[in-house]
Amino acid sequence: MRTNVALLNILSNPKKTLLSLAGIGTAILLIFMQLGFRGAVENTATNIYSKMDFDILLRSPDYLHFMDSGTIERRFLNQASVVAGVADTNFLRVTVANWRNPQKLNTKAMLIVGIDPLHSPFKDPRVDHAFDLLTAPETILVDTKSNWEFGPRNGRRFAEADVGLQTEIANRQVQVVGLFEMGAGLAANGAVICNEAGFRRIDPLAAPDRINFGLIKLAPGRSAHEVAAEIKELLTRDGITPVDVLTRRETLDRELTRWLGETPIGFIFNLGVFIAFVVGAVIVYMVLGNDVANRLHEYATMRAMGYSGMYLASIVLRQAGYLAGFAFGPALLLSLVLYSITGNLANINLTMTWDRIAFVLSLTLAMSALSGTIALKKLWQVAPAELF
Amino acid sequence: MITDSLDLDDLIARWNPSPSDLSINAVGVNHYYGEGETRKQVLFGNRLQVRRGEIVIMTGPSGSGKTTLLTLIGTLRKVQEGSLKVLGEELLGAAPTTVAQLRKQIGFIFQAHNLFESLTAYQNVSMATELLGIPPVEAKPRIVETLTRLGLGQRIHYKPRSLSGGQKQRVAVARGIIHRPQLILADEPTAALDAESGREVVTIFQEMARNDGCTIVIVTHDNRILDVADRIVSMVDGHIRTNVLIERNAIMCRILNEFDIFRSLTPQAISQVADKLSLRKYLAGEEIIRQGEMGDEFFVIGAGEVDIEIDGIRVNTLGKGAFFGEVSLIKHQPRNATVRAKSNVTCFILSKDDFQSVMDNSQTFEQELRNAIFARQ
After folding, report:
1. Tens of pLDDT along A166-190?
2. Residue A104 lies inside a defined structural domain of this protein
């Protein structure tokens, strides 16, 4: 077995190595956090849609985001329901109104979702089961993922204890009769569900023949793309389609594109990843460059002994690999801890995925390979003739 | 070591090695540092022939070029001018693969030790055996034995920073010799050592030279180890000033003392002449010099007899101790006679320049010559 010079070099100065590992690990941790936040944004941005049960979505071409969605005529949904393959249709009304914090009595914008309680468009079974609760116009279900600033009794989040709570939305008396779980996403911090009468009470100006979203469920075995295309064709008059017809996938993709592509959010996180990458690469380079410079006469000695330049380069590159490898594990563990802490504190969904671990690992290796290669430049200065 | 056998034929064989016997064969090696205006010549026509198994000690003030010559021999520097053959390979314009291959057969011992700081003494030494692919089962006992012999038995798994200067030096020595190289280049290998361990190191060198035919070049100012040298090369200002094969010189001096012509010289002058004399053998009937040609050598008969012929007529016969060829050199005339070997003849020969310099430096020698020439007429 050959003497592992690279590993021994790394281990020979534990204090310095630990310091370098801390630096590199921090860079890796930063990358994990940035990607985590980015992932959280992705999850949050698509959260409402992913909680809703639909295959094809009809919505206004004016749609900007969930809180500013525009409306469509309800008859388009009725027309679409005759297309072959459509098994069921449903709708959603959405508005934003001021919620009065029952504890502090200040108000805060709340997402109001109006549904037909007998026909819940949500996957959450609690909404399904609430049809006999949402009978009166003033009855509402409140999202347990709503922010604490809306004034839950326990000060953190709405829970069973809040059922029966009375407060005001848009200066109208409402009563919490149940809970559901959604997470309103990036545009609002909280959400409630009410029935149609309740919705009109909160938003009297809403036109009764207009809805915000039309939801279509398909019969098993039908392609969403084909049916969507048929609906689009059916609704098109004089080359104008008055509504956007989107498959579930398209809906989610557009949401991601909007939040990550059209706002600076995605750019900020990508930039964060890039900067962390550069910082990590610089640290690896400085550590290695310094090490190579300190050991220049050792490398020269190896050259004199007859070791090849490739062998010398492999020592430096393996040192880079060890640094990256040793820093990666602890950084991953720490990021899992931080995911859970920040996830709880900020009430966002920070989850680690295998894809992300693989991605960051390859970024880390790329980082060390890059810096190692740059550090090699110093290696070519080796002049064994100077040894004597 | 001086042998008692003074058979001249034997000496010729020993002192005129065939090229294949040479570990180092440098001819006309020039070297320059810098470029253009600042180009400075540091080696001037260096000529050095070292046989397999020889121990060479190189001395000279710093800046004399001995280190440059050492790095050239060690393939650590590119040869610029001249021919330098090391272990049979020409280094002038040598391919990188040749150089890499050669380096594995050379053991370097650096004054600054240049140990690998992260590695233990054992691992430092094993870097040399690993490179040659010596299997660990074979290498391990060898490494342990060598380190133990060098007094590092208790320090085998210490890292350099826990070792004293002398101990580091000994690890460096072990690393330089462990792979049994054919050539060892050592820079002050005993400088950091006490007398005892210094002696152990040179004893190992001697064993390797004698048993394995390893050639050893040592740059040193440590006169405690001069006695191991077979050859002492002294450099000044980029020139090889003296290149003395110790044994040959001693034997030569003893032989020369038997000749009347040299007996008058001081011991120092004899040694100088001995250094410059070469030995050559002629078969019976062979022509040694020819009448009418310009001469450039001076001959002293070591053994056998020669006939002197003028215009084809034999005029005299000379035997051991007699000399000839001087007239042409002194008077810058063509040879005035032909000299032919009557039996097998061995001659000591001085080249024209060396002859002149001996004449210049020794009035007694010149006087002796003139007397002899006078007596001959």
Report:
1. 999 999 999 999 999 887 666 678 8
2. yes
Residue A254 in domain? no
In a domain, A157, yes or no: yes
Whether A207 and A115 share a structural domain: yes
What is the nearest CA distance from A2 to chain B, expressed in angstroms? 6
**Span A53-73, pLDDT tens digits:** 999 999 999 998 888 889 999
For strands A139-143 and A172-180, give the pairing: parallel
Question: Could you tell me if B46 and B38 are in contact, meaning their C-beta atoms sit under 8 angstroms apart?
Answer: no
The architecture of the domain spanning B257-376 is Sandwich (2.60)
Q: How far apart are CA A120 and CA A113, in angstroms?
A: 11
CA B183 to CA B217: how far, in whole Å?
8
State the DSSP H helix or E strand holding residue A36, giving kind and residue range, or none if neither.
helix A14-51
Look up residue B48 and give its two tokens: 């050095």
| Residues A95 and A218 reside in one and the same domain | yes
Distance between CA atoms of B84 and B45, rounded to whole angstroms?
A: 11
State the pLDDT at residue A298: 93
Domain B18-245, CATH among 3.40.50.720, 1.10.10.60, 3.40.50.300, 3.30.40.10: 3.40.50.300
| Whole-angstrom distance, CA of residue A6 vs CA of residue B315 | 82
Nearest to A3 among B111, B115, B123 (CB): B123
pTM of the model: 0.76
Tell me the chain A residues in contact with residue B66 when contact means C-beta distances shorter than 8 Å: none
- Across all residues in chain B, what is the average pLDDT? 88
Residue environment code for A349-379, b if the CB has 16+ CB neighbours within 10 A, otherwise e: bbebeeebbeebeebbeebbbbbbebbbebb
Residues in chain B: 377
Q: From the list A11, A298, A385, which residue is nearest B76 (CB)?
A: A385
ipTM over 0.85: no
A211-248: pLDDT as tens digits = 999 999 999 988 999 999 999 999 888 888 889 999 99
pLDDT at A345 over 90: no
For residue B35 the two structure tokens come to 């470029």
Residues of B with CB below 8 A from A2's CB?
A: 130
